[in-house]
Structures are given as C-alpha cells and as structure tokens.
Specification:
The protein is of the alpha+beta class. The chain contains three helices and seven strands, in the order H-E-E-E-H-H-E-E-E-E.
C-alpha cells in the first residue's frame, strides 16, 4: 500500500547521483545550511488530499504534493554574470530532476506486483535568483502532484468472526409426509403445516457439515 512517505523516500533515492547535486539530496531535518554545500536538493511531502471513491468502503484516490527545493550558487562575476551562472545551473537541475523522476519504473512499479502510483497529475516549478554579499545564488522550487490508490486494508480493521463450519440440511418438496409434524425443524418457516400436499415437511432428510480451513 502506497503512502506519501513512500513517495518522498522513492524520490530521494531516485535523485541521489542522478543530477549535478550528486548525493546532496536530503529529506527534512537534515538540510545543510552552508552555501558551500550547494548545489543541493531538499525533498518533502508537505501536502496530501484524499478523494473518496464512494460511500461505505474506505477507498480513496490520494493526491500527494512532493516539494523539491534546489539551491545553486556561483562565484561573484562582473555585473550580473554570476546570477546568470547560478540560474543556468538551476535550470539544468530542473531538467535532470524531471528526467530522473518522471516515468521512472523504480517509482511507478511495485516490486510485489502492480503499480505504486497511477499518475503524475501536475508539475509546477519556479526559479528565483538573488545575491548574498558576493555570492550569487538561484533557488528552484518544484511541486509534483502524484496520484495513487489507498484501500480498506490501510485503515482501521473491522473485527470479524471467521467462518469455521457450514451445515447443510435437506428437507425436500418431494417425497414428503402429508400428515406428520416434527419438532425442531432446521427451517421452521419453510415447513408446510399438516395436512400438506407438498414438502418441506420438517424432517431432516439429510445433513452435511463442512469444516473450513482457517
């Protein structure tokens, strides 16, 4: 069963070593703040929305938004040339990230069979450049919305009593006893009262007990 945390983890794994950021791909709480670490990528799944597939059964189309934040830098250059270098590096990373994630079978396919996800429903991105002192920087923000399915097995288990045995009783319409009355018939409501012109007459004419494997 797919979760937003699964998608985030799969994105991190797919991005490591697949872009100019190398292994500098992080999830929340381990983000290096030093610009000397740039370029680097942060991945987190901040938003999720479940859409019910109907009443009575807890089945959902789930839409999770995975946010990817990328930072690049450049050495200071004449005029705005350093910002242009940082911007170009961010644009290159954008293409590398999309190539590493979209249509990647490691993300789509479940090793146990079937698919983890159904669709990349949208990809939105925004790039900004700025300078801090003598170090031009660029920041790329990508939001990827992924659709997948969640079913009843993921939610609160409904207590059930397992079916252990099946008892079969036979009380036929023909032959029948036109006048007899029998105590404790298996299906009292089905017995025609005497005198009767057809069965069931209340006799247990045959029985079978089936014990089911557990």
């Amino acid at each position: 069963m797919t979760t937003s945390a699964d998608i985030r983890s799969l994105f991190v794994t797919a991005l490591k070593g697949a872009t100019n950021a190398g292994q500098s791909v992080y999830s929340p709480f381990d983000w290096p703040t030093s610009p000397s670490s740039y370029p680097l990528i942060l991945v987190h799944a901040r938003k999720e929305r479940k859409v019910s597939l109907g009443p009575n059964t807890p089945e959902f189309d789930v839409y999770t938004t995975v946010e990817i934040l990328v930072r690049t830098k450049s050495a200071a250059q004449v005029g705005d040339a350093g910002s242009a270098v940082a911007l170009a590096a961010a644009e290159t990373l954008k293409l590398q990230i999309e190539t590493a994630l979209i249509n990647n079978p490691a993300i789509w396919a479940d090793p146990a069979g079937g698919q983890r996800i159904e669709q990349f429903t949208s990809v939105d991105s925004e790039i900004n450049t700025h300078s801090e002192g003598d170090m031009p920087m660029a920041e790329l923000a990508i939001s990827i919305e992924v659709k997948f399915y969640q079913g009843p097995e993921l939610f609160f288990p409904i207590p059930v009593n397992p079916l252990q045995t099946v008892d079969i009783y036979v009380d036929t319409a023909q032959p029948f006893d036109p006048n007899g009355t029998y105590s404790n018939p298996p299906f009292p409501s089905a017995v025609n009262p005497a005198p009767r012109t057809s069965g069931p007459d209340g006799r247990n004419e045959g029985a079978l007990t089936i014990t089911l494997p557990q």
